[in-house]
UniProtKB/TrEMBL annotation:
GO MF: ATP binding
Protein name: ABC transporter ATP-binding protein
UniProt keyword annotation of Glycosyltransferase present: no
Pfam families cross-referenced by the UniProt entry: ABC_tran (PF00005)
Start and end residues of each ABC transporter domain: 6-234
InterPro entries: AAA+_ATPase (IPR003593), ABC_transporter-like_ATP-bd (IPR003439), ABC_transporter-like_CS (IPR017871), P-loop_NTPase (IPR027417)
Domain of life: Bacteria
Provenance organism: Oceanobacillus luteolus
Length: 306
């Protein structure tokens, strides 16, 4: 049984008369990377601020390893590491000096803990350079190292990929996955760009207008049995004839000379050879996976993918 790291139960937030978060309930397991996705203004930051105790919960509760953030705040928050705004770092100090300085404020943190955090975010090499010379991605990684110095069970990152280039995003992804796998940390990452964090996450929760619209297992979607959209550009062939030729029960749609088949990946070779055997001229074959983005788009009903 996976251990629940964080449980939100009917969490609502009202500011004045405005209901910003509406009855949010979901849980995140240890060792899991959970993407919290939604368009700008959906309520991600508000939810995260409640998760880390920066904002009061109007109704409902959040439990961290079983401890209520409302009634047992100290015990609960001990298990949380977070970067809610940009990590606060001194640009004129080195990465190592920044971490030492920060560690001084946390009782019980040793040099060994610092070294371990540095290893986990892969910052050993640049540790003695001034932070002012770091790339944004490197700063993020030092920020993550800071946030995990006290060995929390949950790491919460609000929009960690904001402003990062693809290489920076790839690096963050790598270290976040490592943290979840090696340290059994539950990682919660918010973003309005699904494409940027899809590959980091085991599961995503989609929020819109303060409500959780859906949660979706990301792994499920990449399994080999997933239906694939196969677009074939061929000489003009009526759809029903094409379907007869390929001898497969599939859903298909036609636009001009292009037919898009929805089939399982393992059936693609047979489909193509059947067409070729019937002397149908094929000009182009391309695969568009039935991606999470399609699902996301269906759920949100607007393009917030970036
Ligand atoms: N203090 C406040 N008073 C009134 N309304 C607020 C307050 N804070 C946030 N809101 C509103 O609550 C909604 C959710 O905001 P929030 O910042 O949580 O969204 P978000 O999903 O994090 O968006 P973004 O990606 O833009 O940061 C928005 O409509 C925002 O205007």
């Amino acid at each position: 049984m996976p251990e629940i790291a964080m449980q939100l139960t009917n969490v609502s937030k009202r500011i004045g008369k405005k209901e910003i978060i509406k009855d949010l309930s979901f849980s995140i397991n240890r060792g899991e990377v959970f993407g919290f996705i939604g368009p700008n203004g959906a309520g991600k930051t508000t939810t995260i601020r409640m998760m880390v105790g920066l904002m009061k919960i109007t109704e409902g509760d959040i439990h961290i390893l079983g401890k209520s953030i409302k009634s047992d705040f100290k015990q609960a928050i001990r298990e949380v590491g977070a970067i809610v705004e940009n990590p606060e770092l001194y640009p004129f100090l080195t990465g190592a000096q920044n971490l030492k300085q920060y560690a001084r404020m946390i009782p019980g943190v040793t040099q060994k803990d610092i070294d371990e955090a540095v290893r986990l975010v892969g910052m050993e090499k640049a540790l003695n350079e001034k932070v002012g010379r770091y790339s944004l991605g490197m700063r993020q990684r030092i920020g993550i190292a800071q946030a995990i110095l006290h060995k929390p069970s949950i790491l919460i990152l609000d929009e960690p990929t904001n402003g990062l280039d693809p290489a920076g995003i790839r690096e963050i992804r790598q270290y976040i996955r490592k943290l979840a796998a090696e340290k059994n940390v539950a990682v919660i990452i918010s973003s309005h760009l699904l494409s940027e964090i899809e590959l980091m996450c085991d599961r995503i929760g989609i929020i819109k207008n303060g409500e959780l619209v859906a949660t979706q297992d990301v792994r499920e979607n990449t399994s080999s049995t997933t239906q694939t959209l196969l677009q074939v550009e061929m000489e003009a062939t009526p759809l029903d004839k094409a379907l007869e030729i390929i001898n497969e029960k599939t859903t298909a749609a036609q636009t001009n000379n292009k037919i898009t088949f929805e089939i399982e990946k393992e059936h693609i070779p047979a489909l193509i050879s059947n067409l070729v055997e019937q002397n149908i001229l094929i000009y182009e074959v391309s695969v568009t996976k039935s991606t999470l983005e399609d699902k996301f788009f269906d759920l949100i009903g607007e393009n917030v993918i970036g």
